């Protein structure tokens, strides 16, 4: 007897194999936010920080206590190692890159200080029973880093293990990353982690899981672990629900994978990363690097620095007026090698003791008298020249240039040892009789 073969039933991932025959085996499709939900780009500051942190590959490691440890008391000293992640926290700007720790479904604890890449965390008193832990490297706005090694999960039992209170060791379960305490206004960050989720989308129709996200009642389906920024219509308080489903749309152990979070619009200053742009100083403070020094502009009205007078410089400056003598057309031109006109005139008068003669006939002077007169005149000229040189050095050049002659130069009185008829021809002032 030949019995016709029946179509094979494709049991969905996570089902117990007892589905009914009327159940559709069609994999449900993903969908995008629509209606009152709109997916938008991250704020400009978020994009700046993402680009700056993209060069880091954080790695988390559990040091103690190890996964599955049975604790005798709820007081636990937890030690984690974080590598290649610039932990930072600014007193005014808030958290920078940090590490988040979530215990069961409680709100995350955030840490931004490490000692030699180690985080020493004293946990609050754990109640007896079994607990699951999730730790991940987080952006300043709370988003979890999705690269390999940037997150980890483990379990601890206090006094004894309670079966059925936590997902099985290899079962999938969801961690709601955001909305969280860092979310305060639109656009709203939606982020999550799914543990033990099998690979999918390797070929068409191999969908193993879906995540249904509902924001204020409007729902859509996703199949990737990528954060979303959403803008929802309406104001005030709202809610975000996340449900982990299998490929056919059925819930997977909803006691652990159906999470609800409240969203509250808080008044006050928006977080720094919600701005459209960050300055270089703000970026440095949020990334935990040295703040670049700013050059202070000179004070208004401050005089420019004066350089010392160079002795070799051709330009002189009047100490009283601060003006350049070379630039002053009214100042007399003075050169050490070319004496001024006034000086030349005075010197000429002092060097030429002979006045204008009314009689053109020369006086009758003997050879001996002429030699004596020339000797006395040369000595007098030499003494007067030396005295004039000393006076030039003693009197400042400025006084020499600006002083006006007070009268005619004193005529040189010539003494002579002439005698006889030659002496009677010369007056006392040197003029001819």
What are the SSEs and their pairings?
Blueprint: E1 37-39, H1 44-53, E2 59-64, E3 69-71, E4 76-83, E5 89-90, E6 94-95, E7 98-103, E8 109-111, E9 118-123, E10 129-138, E11 151-158, E12 173-178, E13 188-195, E14 209-215, E15 218-222, E16 228-232, E17 238-246, H2 254-257, E18 258-263, H3 280-287, H4 341-351, H5 367-394, H6 397-402, H7 421-424
Parallel strand pairs: 3-11
Antiparallel strand pairs: 1-16, 2-4, 4-9, 5-6, 7-8, 7-10, 10-11, 12-13, 13-16, 14-15, 14-17, 17-18
Query: What is the β-strand count?
Result: 18
Structural class: alpha+beta
Task: Report the portion of residues in β strands.
Answer: 15-25%
CATH topology of the largest domain: Immunoglobulin-like
Distance between the termini: 180 Å
CATH-defined architecture of the largest domain: Sandwich
Q: Tally the structural domains.
A: 2
Number of helices: 7
Average of per-residue pLDDT values: 74
Residue ranges: pLDDT <50 for 5 or more in a row? 1-23, 307-363, 365-375, 390-405, 407-412
* Strand order across the largest sheet: 3-11-10-7-8
Topology pattern, helix = H, strand = E: EHEEEEEEEEEEEEEEEEHEHHHHH
Determine the CATH superfamily of the largest domain. Immunoglobulins
Bin the helical content: 10-25%
Rg calc: 52 Å
Biggest β-sheet, characterized?
5 strands, mixed
